[in-house]
Amino acid sequence: MAGYEPKEQEIFPQLFGALTEALEQNPDQDFLGDMFMRLELGSHWHGQFFAPYNLCRAIAEIQMGDAQERIQTRGWVSINDCACGAGALLIAARNVMMRAGQDWSSQALFVAQDIDRTAALMCYLQLSLLGCAGYVVIADSLRYPITGSLLRPTPVPEQDIWYTPTLYLSPVWGYRMLWERIESVQRYATSDPEPEIMTDVGTQLTLF
Fold first, then answer.
1. Secondary structure (3-state) at 43
2. Residue 181 in domain
3. Residue 118's domain spans which residues?
4. For residues 119 and 83, what is the distance between their CA atoms, to the nearest angstrom?
5. C-alpha to C-alpha distance for 86 and 52, rounded to whole angstroms
6. Is residue 145 part of a domain?
7. Could you tell me if residue 190 is inside a domain?
8. Is residue 40 part of a domain?
9. Where is the DNA methylase adenine-specific domain positioned along the sequence (predicted)?
């Protein structure tokens, strides 16, 4: 905030309040992504274009078809978007689960990644305000993909990981992370260490 004048700093809480109010009134939207494109802030040199939310909703409806089956197998499902933008696909997936009567706050882990810091943090803000449990990774998903476990990704220096408040404030997710840590310790105590790869991919739904 030091780079902004005092009058400019006063605008930030007003903007945050407007975002909160917009998502409370209508959670079935990509508020920041739509605003970003309306203001023409995207980089056409990098092919940066956020898909309209209606399209993201249709994709989520198709991709989330077997979510309930995966939830029944383990109790929760991971939903991934490796080029998340402002999070439209993940927001749409959350709303698909809500309309289906599924408990998205405790049955879905939202995993996002984007190379653009501004886009990734827009995604983080919206997922956090909508109460989604998960995290957003700022890094090139091709060069620096997420490794480790779904609940406890292994960070590398080239990644910046932002965890949503719900992931740590929810007792349900807290117990799951604790249990996974116990299993991990037991596994490493009885076997030779293996290279870090993303585990539990069977519970993961990839939207993009």
1. coil
2. yes
3. 6-206
4. 10
5. 11
6. yes
7. yes
8. yes
9. 46-145
Nearest to 206 by CA among 110, 121, 123, 122: 110
Q: What residue has token string 């305000």?
A: 129
Tell me the residue length of the chain.
208
Residue range 93-102: mean pLDDT, rounded: 94
CA distance 142 to 155: 15
Token digits of residue 66: 């077997």
From residue 35, alpha-carbon distances to 39, 79, 93, 115, 123 in Å are 6, 24, 20, 20, 13
Q: Which two tokens stand for residue 153?
A: 């990704």
Q: What is the pLDDT of residue 11?
A: 93
What is the sign, positive or negative, of the torsion defined by CA atoms of 110, 115, 120, 123? Answer: negative
Continuous segment of H or E residues that includes residue 79 = strand 77-81
The residue ranking higher by pLDDT, 50 or 88, is: 88
Q: How far is CA 8 from CA 31, 35, 109, in A?
A: 22, 19, 35
Output DSSP code: residue 51.
P
